[in-house]
Write a structure and sequence with these properties.
This protein has about 70 residues and is an alpha/beta fold. About 40% of the residues lie in helices and about 15% in strands. Strand 1 (about 15), helix 2 (about 25) and strand 2 (about 30-35) form a beta-alpha-beta unit. The chain is flat, with a radius of gyration of 12 Å. The relative contact order is 0.18.
Length: about 70
């Protein structure tokens, strides 16, 4: 819904999650990222799994995707 409101396709969305309740979000976007501490279901749904856990994994994903710089 947020992508629709912003006028962008879901293929342009980056989602980061770690729980079973994140599975549809991770599989329904352009780049789904599961953190290292994610549930097995979240990892299966993701396009990328970070090596870092929690906030370190979020930082790793954002750096890798070019959203933030060091």
């Amino acid at each position: 819904k947020a992508a629709e409101l912003l006028g962008i396709g879901t293929d342009e969305v980056l989602a980061i999650g770690d729980s079973d309740n994140d599975v549809s979000m991770l599989s329904g976007c352009g780049m789904g990222v599961a953190l290292a501490n994610a549930s097995p279901a979240a990892k299966r749904a993701a396009s990328l799994i970070t090596r870092g856990r929690h906030s370190q994994g979020v930082r790793e994903a954002l750096l890798q995707m070019g959203v933030i710089k060091e």
